[in-house]
Amino acid sequence: MRDDETTTRITDDVVALIPALRAFAWTLTRDPIEMDDLVQETLLKALSNLDKFEPGTRLRAWLFTIMRNAFYSRAKRSRREAPGVIDAASIPQPVAPTQEWTLRGKELMEVVGRLPEHYREMLILVVMLGESYESAAAICGVAVGTVKSRVNRARQMVMADLGDQQV
């Protein structure tokens, strides 16, 4: 059992990591509503299981692991459910970017989005979110060498896909 001060400190650290959780959720879902739901589900699971977190370990990796597991559980569940008819009025209409960097960022994210899932996940964790190779390996449950290999291959695929475009 933890004292109130330790619990408050860990809870404050969890709140401070919400922007990183939102960024990781966006890369997994690519939908603002799904992203918010996934972050909320992650926070609910983390705070209800705070007694299982061991101080001195990486809180960020623990939260990302919870989020990743929640995402894959949702994906498995949604494959079993029959999709309904999409109402055309409920689909948000895209707005074309007006700034060049916004357009280039969108092109880059499209290229990253086309990567195979296991490469995309590693590229986002290590390159975009700044996780260490060791932390990404722990989050995804693979060897550090696998993480390094996947990040390298993902970078090569992105560069090849952007080939004749200047970024």
Give the SSE layout.
Layout: H1 4-16, H2 18-29, H3 32-48, H4 59-80, H5 100-114, H6 117-128, H7 133-140, H8 144-162
Helix pairs in contact: 2-3, 2-4, 3-4, 4-7, 6-8, 7-8
Shape: globular
Record field, number of beta strands: 0
Number of helices: 8
Multimeric state of these chains? single chain
- Cα-atom Rg, whole angstroms? 18 Å
Class from secondary-structure proportions: mainly alpha
Q: Low-confidence stretches at least 5 residues in length (pLDDT < 50)? A: none
Distance between the termini: 52 Å
Into which percent range does the helicity of residues fall? Answer: over 70%
The biggest beta sheet, please?
none
- Average pLDDT: 86
Strand content: under 5%
Tell me the series of helices and strands, N- to C-terminal.
Answer: HHHHHHHH
Question: What would your notes on this structure say?
Answer:
With 167 residues, the chain is mainly α. Helix content is 71%, strand content 0%.
Short summary of the structure?
With 167 residues, the chain is mainly alpha-helical.
Keyword list:
globular, single chain, 167 residues, mainly alpha
